[in-house]
Amino acid sequence: MRVFSGIQPTGAKHIGNYIGAMRQYVATQDANEGGAYFCIVDLHSITVEYDPRDLHDRSLDLAALLFAVGLDADRCVLFCQSHVAAHSEAAWLLSAVTGFGQLGRMTQFKEKGEGKEFVSAGLFTYPVLMAGDILLYQTDIVPIGDDQRQHLELARDVAERFNSRYGETFKVPRAVYPEVGARIMDLQEPTKKMSTTNGTPQGTVLVLDDPDTIRKKFKTAVTDSGREIRFVPEEKPGVSNLIEILSVASGRPIAEVEEDYDGRGYGDLKTDVGEAVVELFRPVRERYAELRSDEDELRRLLRIGAEKAQTTSAPTLHHMYERMGFVAR
Ligand code: AQP
Known about the structure:
By secondary structure, the protein is mostly helical. It is built from 12 helices and 5 strands. Adenosine-5'-tetraphosphate is lined by residues 7-8, 16-17, 19-21, 144-145, 147-148, 182-184, 193-198.
């Protein structure tokens, strides 16, 4: 099985990104013989207002963070999207088989564009670039969080339309969501997903937050009326979110966590989740500091990753041009 997933260098990464995506990356890098490709999707980050200096630094931050959580350059391919030109080329070619109407129905486009004075065309067409990212690698599985469900469906539709119009070219990929934590919610507004661009600062727990900040964010987490600690997301979104995070951070099933807190109060739960997350991220923070201090090494590893990604994606891009009728060079 071939694995591919992308992650944006926009902003600082939060526990939702860790649980929904990064943790799955680490788990899949060894389990799949077809190779695992993880892409820092920097081209996606320019679809909303951004600072170029920030994009540059955040891309290196993210590379260091991904290695710090456990990706290994010998066991997977980690690279920057902008280093492999095939991604931009594939996006243009695939725009020929992507429906304008379907793009308009993407909820992320609506959410991120809402109330903005300027909405870039890139924000609208971004899912086409994402489809190209995945399809270029003949990907079998895509580990993602629940918020990417609609984009992945679009990538599958695009692959099928291309295959039927121009001949069998792409594998049709399948999404893989984590069993627990596919949609981590904002601690202050637990009916909304934890998010880099639309979240509350106090309700967004960053992987690199210092221990006291993490404890404080969990202490002030919004819970629900009532006193029972039960996992019922529709009725008790705040408490259920904390149970889910504790389940992941402590490696215990949700039912066991519920049982442990039978008869105990919300205060205990908040303190314990905070501590568990502090411990979960402690080694990550330490490794990150070390890796981030050596920029030359990060750049070297990303260069190696880009070379491998370039080699893997080139034949698919070639077939796309050929089947679409372009004259060979
Ligand atoms: N709240 C979440 N719970 C579980 N998984 C999540 N992901 C994002 N938020 C949650 C997953 O993280 C991966 C990388 O996401 P991204 O950085 O490329 O950006 P995103 O999906 O757009 O989410 P962000 O980081 O919160 O940014 P916003 O909300 O500002 O767009 C993806 O696999 C995603 O599913």
